[in-house]
C-alpha cells in the first residue's frame, strides 16, 4: 500500500472544515447547524439511524446537494462561495455510493478511464496506467474487459472504488458502500477500505458496519435527526458514549 502513502506528518492539517451547515428540503431542516472538521489523513466514520441525514451530509460535502446555509471550507476555500468551480472541487473528492453507480455500457477499464479523460483531460494511455494501478490495488485487474452486469456486487463496488481513486482525489467519501452487498461480499470491500485507511488516505465513511468503524476510524461522528449528537474517538463512542441517544442507538445496533 505504499502507493498511496503520505509522509508521516506530526502537524495536523485541516482538509475539510464544515461550519454551521444546514440543509432544508422544502420546510424540513434535515441538517441543522453541523460543525465538524477532518484532518488530512484522518478516517472519520459517520453512524446513525436511517433518515438522520448522513447521506445528505456527504452529498452536501461534494455538492451533489446545495446546502441551505453555512460554510464548507475545503483545502482553504469556502466551496459554497465558489460554485463556479464545482467540478474542480468535485474531482478532488472521490465518492462511492451504496448502489455502485457504474456505467453499465462500459467495461471495467472504460469505467475507470472515462472520467480521467473527460474531466482531467488525461490521455487514454495515462488514464489506463492509472486505472490499472488501482484496479490491481482492489484486486480487479483480472476483470478489465468485464461489463458491470457480469460482476458480483462486491466486485462492482471494488471497481467503483478503483474508479474514484483513479481521479487522484484528496479525500474519499463512502456512503454505505457495503449495504447493498450479499454478506459474503462485504469482507472483500471492507478489506480494501481498511488498506486505504492504513495507507494514509483521508476518508469519510457512512457505515452500519460498527466493528469496521471501531477498527479503522480515528474519529466517529454519531448523527441523530439532522444534528451531530456526539463525536469522538471510537473507544469513547462505542465503549463509553456520553449521550443518551448514542447509547440508545448502539443498544439497537450492536
Ligand atoms: P440517512 O442517509 O442518514 O439515512 P438522508 O440524508 O438520506 O439520511 O435523509 C435525511 C432526511 O432527508 C430524511 O428524512 C429523508 O427523507 C430526507 N431527504 C433526503 N433526500 C431528500 C430529497 N431529495 N428530497 C426530500 N427529502 C429528502
Ligand atoms: Mg443514507
Automatic annotation (TrEMBL):
Molecular function terms from GO: ATP binding
Domain ABC transporter per the UniProt entry, residue ranges: 16-250
Nucleus listed as a keyword: no
Subcellular location: Cell membrane
InterPro entries: AAA+_ATPase (IPR003593), ABC_ATPase_HisP-typ (IPR030679), ABC_transporter-like_ATP-bd (IPR003439), ABC_transporter-like_CS (IPR017871), MetN_ABC_transporter-like (IPR050086), P-loop_NTPase (IPR027417)
Superkingdom in the source lineage: Bacteria
Keywords (A to Z) from UniProt: Amino-acid transport, ATP-binding, Cell membrane, Membrane, Nucleotide-binding, Transport
Family: Belongs to the ABC transporter superfamily.
Record protein name field: Amino acid ABC transporter ATP-binding protein
Amino acid at each position: 500500500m505504499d502507493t498511496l502513502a503520505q509522509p508521516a506528518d506530526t502537524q495536523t492539517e485541516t482538509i475539510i472544515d464544515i461550519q454551521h451547515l444546514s440543509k432544508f428540503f422544502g420546510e424540513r431542516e434535515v441538517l441543522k447547524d453541523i460543525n465538524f472538521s477532518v484532518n488530512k489523513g484522518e478516517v472519520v466514520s459517520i453512524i446513525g439511524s436511517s433518515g438522520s441525514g448522513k447521506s445528505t451530509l456527504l452529498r452536501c460535502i461534494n455538492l451533489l446537494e446545495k446546502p441551505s446555509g453555512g460554510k464548507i471550507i475545503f483545502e482553504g476555500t469556502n466551496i459554497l462561495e465558489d460554485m463556479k468551480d464545482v467540478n474542480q472541487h468535485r474531482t478532488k473528492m472521490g465518492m462511492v455510493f451504496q448502489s455502485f453507480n457504474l456505467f453499465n455500457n462500459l467495461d471495467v477499464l472504460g469505467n475507470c478511464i472515462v472520467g480521467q479523460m473527460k474531466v482531467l483531460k488525461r490521455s487514454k494511455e495515462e488514464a489506463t496506467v492509472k486505472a490499472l494501478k488501482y484496479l490491481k490495488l482492489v484486486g480487479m485487474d483480472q476483470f478489465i474487459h468485464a461489463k458491470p452486469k457480469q460482476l458480483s456486487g462486491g466486485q462492482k463496488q471494488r471497481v467503483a472504488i478503483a474508479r474514484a481513486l483513479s481521479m487522484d482525489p484528496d479525500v474519499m467519501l463512502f456512503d454505505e458502500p457495503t449495504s447493498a452487498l450479499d454478506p459474503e461480499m462485504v469482507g472483500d470491500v471492507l478489506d480494501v477500505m481498511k488498506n486505504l485507511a492504513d495507507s494514509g488516505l483521508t476518508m469519510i465513511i457512512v457505515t452500519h458496519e460498527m466493528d469496521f468503524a471501531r477498527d479503522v476510524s480515528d474519529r466517529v461522528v454519531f448523527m441523530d435527526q439532522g444534528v451531530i449528537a456526539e463525536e469522538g474517538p471510537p473507544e469513547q463512542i462505542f465503549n463509553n458514549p456520553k449521550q443518551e441517544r448514542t447509547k440508545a442507538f448502539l443498544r439497537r445496533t450492536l
